[in-house]
Each structure stands twice: as structure tokens, then as C-alpha cells.
Amino acid sequence: MTSCMRPYCDLIAVRMLLLLLVLVLVRSDSAENRCLSSLISTCEDCLRRGPECAWCSQERFLDGAHVSQRCGSVSDLRVRGCEEAFIENPNVKVEVNATISSTQVSPREINIHLRPGGEATFVIEVQQLERYPVDLYYLVDVSASMQDNLDQLKTAGLALSHQMKEHSSDFRVGFGSFVDKPVSPYIDVHPSKLLNPCSDYEVHCRPAHGFIHVLPITQNMTEFTRVIQEQRISGNMDTPEGGFDAMLQATVCQKDIGWRPEAKHLLLVMTDQPSHLALDSKLAGIVVPHDGRCHLEDNIYSQTTTMEHPTIAQLAEKLLENSVYSIFAVDQVQYQWYEDLLDLIPGSYVGRLFPKASNLKDLVVHAYKKLLSDVELQIGLEDAQAPRFWVNVTAFCPNGSTVSGSTKCSSVQPKQTVFFKVTVGMSCCPAEGGDQDVLMSVRPVGFNESVTVRIRQDCGCGCTETGRCHDDAGPSACPTETDVCRADRSEPVCSGRGACKCGTCVCDSSRLGNIYGKFCEMDDFSCPYVKGLVCGGHGQCVSSECVCLPGWTGETCDCPASTESCVSDDGLICSGWGKCVCGECVCDDSRRSGALCEKCPICDSSCQSHWSCVNCHLSNGLGSDAYQLCNRSCAASSVEYVDDITELVRGKYCLYPSSEKCQYRFLMDLASERPQLHISRHPVCVWSRRYFKTFLSAFLLTVTLGIGMLAAVRQLLRARNCSWRSNPEQQFERSPKDPSYVPTTNEKTITYRSDRLPNHPVEMHSHMPKMLLSDAWQ
Topologically, how does it sit relative to the membrane (predicted)? Predict the structure, then answer.
């Protein structure tokens, strides 16, 4: 089954690849033809197509063509003959106002010009100071369950003040309290419980309240201690408290709270319960959304029973707008609930508060250091304008890391600087009121300095003001003759590709491309294409032939007429070793390569390649003038004269045959980038008679040695033969297993006698190897 499924899977893969290829081609074609549409009738319509589209307002441009042909890319319009002065193409501009002084955030004001589809990039610099003045506002939940923490605050607050002075140049504190909205079902509305919510426990409590501002920001710690000692607990019925309601009032009521503009603002929220959210107010019949404004009357939140709780987004916006850090010191049970808010509220910190607030001092100091070490950027844009813009931020942190799409750097130390690269793009123009500027705020969280970005939307054209964005069709009577629509009397009317109306050619439309020209003789599809552009983008297509623009040549106008690209550093064309053809070097010597024919690994390694250089120096007498006279012949090497060339060790020795009987020696050193030639001043001359004597001596010596060796070998053989004959038994005793044993041939005469024969002995000769005789003897 697996083998059967494999062809099916391969077919699916092929189809997916083909589909992907089609999508890529469609997207590419869409991008190229974005400026080409018969629906384009005005300059504004053209610019709205995208940043690559431009409009030509030149009179008599593309005679006979549809008005939509005035829209195209800048390069396309230039090729078609539109002069630069008549091309409407608003450029993206970034203008920085450096006159506004700042100590932490710069620049403070930026103006950018954007067109539909365009984008602009600028850099914002944020620097942390070594010591800041700090304003800390205690916002304490005074419900009955917080009694122990409230008692501990009376002593912990003073210790925290002394501790924070080590990290701040001027530390000040304030105080406020909250419980919940004093309406049912959050509290008991029985008359006796309104005045004393704790009457059932025989404890005198204060009435429930949404938020009471008790002590403005002050550096008088004696007054702060007195206020804390006077605080009493209160009570409510449900578990959540009205913390967000109180936080928003403590944030936006800057004058009442006493926030200093130059200080770091810390809002410390101490509670053991979660907070009510916006829709919770409907349980009490409160349906009016919070307006995000300050509503303190006699330091009491006056709209607590008429307005809903703020949303988390609304609270985060006000904290950022007023440069307030929020610190949640909460009970262990509620820690997770508040931790989930950190991603929703920029510049916030949550810490576990131990029983009786025993760790309050360390918690606040650690929170302050952590919040200060995190530098985060927030972008603000009007809700109505936000869908038409997009923003991308890249953070360059002091530790060397670069995070694209991130607006935050952590572990930033005092006096360190963080850089943010911000890119703003505009997708489209507004339906109405395109000339109105759009304001965008770029604010580091917790900083009292921000950047104002003013976006100017370039959705109009300059030619619109003069009313000359295109030619007007004249209402006068039209001539009937058609000769004015012919390039020549022998040519058809409008080149056979249009109709003559009112003495002007109106060119036909074609699915292949555009037809234009006074006589419809031009188009952008019947000429060769180079790199996707007709005539290489450097000419016009006239009567199916490319008419090149100045500076370009060739059948397809893709060859630059200038030889500047072929000039080497020494001012020579192709280093003097080639010709410049179509803007590229064609080397004369096949051994050479490189863009300027400057490379030839094997040219300088042979002796003969330097003969012309050596010959030039010899012809000029090896004098000082030869260095200048031989620059052409020795362009690739440096030359030096020496008296004794044998003293040079590194390099390759070469000979140059200067005459029939003399040669000059030179040494070729290729160790450096440029070959060095060391030419000997003294030639080496050799006579022919000396060659004959040398040959004769060598011949006679060889013959003598050969005869001597033959005589020695003969003498050795004779001595060995004599030694065997003098001691034959010793020879037979040698074992055939002896490695020095060599079989020999022996002769022996054997005589058989029955009677005494006359003097005619019978002789028999037996030839046998020594080894066989030895075996017989044994």
C-alpha cells in the first residue's frame, strides 16, 4: 500500500510546487503592472496606486495614448520621453527638529512626508540618568483584611524613605486609600452599616469609599507618619476591591497628588484582593463609561457611584500618558491574578507582600531598580487613523543585541543609551481631508519626555494647482483629412495601429502592452526585452527597433557607450591587455582573466614571458634611463640590476640568449604580489671549441671506464674457475641448500677394461650437474 501511495504523494507535491510558482508569478506581475490600469484618469489616482507609481504632466506626452498611460514608474516614464521636470513623484522626507533640548529622549520633534505605500525610518535615542528625583504615592486598600499591613506601614514607610535616598536624588511620598464603590451589592446599604461597616464585630470602622486622597507628595516624613497613624480600616461585602478606580484618579489628578514633572512617578498599590473590572459596575446599575478624567472634590472621588470602573486598556493609557510606574504589592494568593496584568499594563511590577508587610522596603527598592532597568517604547496614534498606518520598531540594546520587532531593552544601567529604529508606513490616503496632518506620539514608558511625530500625507499632485496634469481635448471642429496622421504618405494612417480623430492619432489598445506616439509608431512590447525591460530600459521601441538613449548602444540598448567601467587603476583600458566591449573587458590573451584582464597566474611564471622586459633593459645599456624607457615592456614587474646573481637564493634562474655565443642570466622572484626581476650585469659567453673539448673528454672517460670494468670482471671469473679446479672435493661437499650454491658442469673420463687394451682407450664423457653427483656420492 505504501508503494501505491508514493506516486499519489509525488503528484500532490508537484501540484503544490506548480501552484506556488503560479502565485509567485501572479504577485510579480501584479507588482510590475500596479501602475498600469485603464481606470486611472487623474494624477491622484496614479499616486494612490503605490510608491513606485509616478505621473507625467508633460504636454503632448504619448500622443494618442489613453490618459492612463501617463502613470508608470519613473524609469518607464523617462524611457517614454517624459522630462524630469514634469514627473510627479512625491518623495518620502524625514525632517528632525534638533532645536528642542532634552536630557533623556531625543529628538523631541520629527516631521515626515508619506505617500500611499511609502515608509519612513528614523532613530530615537533614550538615555538613563544616574539618579532621578522620585515621587512615591502609597495607594492602600484599607478594607478590614489589610489591618496588619496598615499597622506595619507606620514603621516600614519611614525605613523605606531612608533606603530610597540611596537611589534617588530627592525622594518624596504621598498617601491615599480605597475600598470599593459605596453602593449595593458591593457594600451593605443598611443605615447602620453605612456609617460603621464593622458594627457586627464591635469595631469602629470608617465608611466605605471609592478613593480618598489623604496626603499630597511631600518630603516631610513626620507628616507622613502622622497620617498613617490616623488611618482606620473599613469594610465591604464582595471580594474584589475598587483598586483600578482609585489608580486612575491617582494617575490623572496630577495637581492634587503633587506629581513633579521632573521626577520618576511610582504608584504603590497595596492590596490582598483583585480589582473590579469595567463591566462589574453594571451589577450596581452603573452604565456610564469612565471618561478618564480627574473627579476629585475635597480630595474625594465624586463620581464613584455614577461611572463604571475603567477598562485595563484605559488605565494603561493614562499611566503611560502621565509617566507613572505601577507597583502591585499583593498577597501570595492574588499574585497570579496581578502577574497576568503585566503584559497589559506597560511599566508595571508585581511583588509578593509578606504578612504584616515585613518585606515592603526590599520589595519597593527591587521594583524601582527593575522598572528603571527596563527601557520600553510605546507608540500612540489616533484610533481613527491607526488602520491606515503601520509601525515597526527595532531595539538596539547596550549589551549589543539587536531585536527586530521589539520595543524593549532590559538590564539597562545608568548612563547607558538605548537606540530605537522606528519605521512608519502609510497604506492608503484618507477618503476625505487628505491634507490634514496626523500626530503620532513615541514615548518611553515612565519617562517624562516623549517624541512628537507629525505625519504629512502627500496624496495630491503639484500639477493639480496649475490645472495642467494632462492634455485637454479641444471642442473645436475637426479636420477631415488624414494626411496629418501619417508619418509618410506611403505609410498607413496612424501606422495601421490607430484611428485619426480631429487630426490626431488615437492609438489602439493591446493586451501585449502600450501603443503610443504621434503616429502610433511606438510601443513597449515588439522590441527585445533585457532583464524584463523593453530595450533594457535604456531606449524607446520605435517600429519594432530599439532607439537607444544617449550613452547606450547595441541592438537592445544594453551596452554602455562609456568605457569607464573598463578603466583599471593605472588609467589603462582593461589594464592594457584587452578591449572594452559592451562595458566589459575582452582580454587579448586567452591566459588572462578578471574583470579588467588583470589576472594571469601563468603569465609571469615562465622565463620567456619576461624576455621582452630583459631585452628592453639590455638594449638601453642597463642604465638608469632604462627604468623609464621600459615601463611598457615591464609593466607587470619591477627590475633590479645585480653584479653577482649567484648570491640570490630565492627565485627561479632564467637565461636570455642575447647573441649567438652569449647569454644573460636573470632571476625571477614571484614571492611578492608583483614579480621582481634581478638582471645580471655580466653576460655568460661560451665558445664552440670549448664545447668540443668537453664532449671529447667526456667520451674518452666513459670508454676508459667501460674497458676497465670489463677487464675486472674477466679477471674475477678466471680466479674463481682456478679455485674450483684446485679443490674439486670441497666444491662437491657444499650442500645444495647453501644459498651461495651454483650448479656447474663437470667432465669425467670413465674406462671399462676386461683385457688389457692396446694403446686405444675408450673414453665416455658424462655431463651431470654437481648436485646429482653429490647425491650419488652420499
Answer: Single-pass type I membrane protein
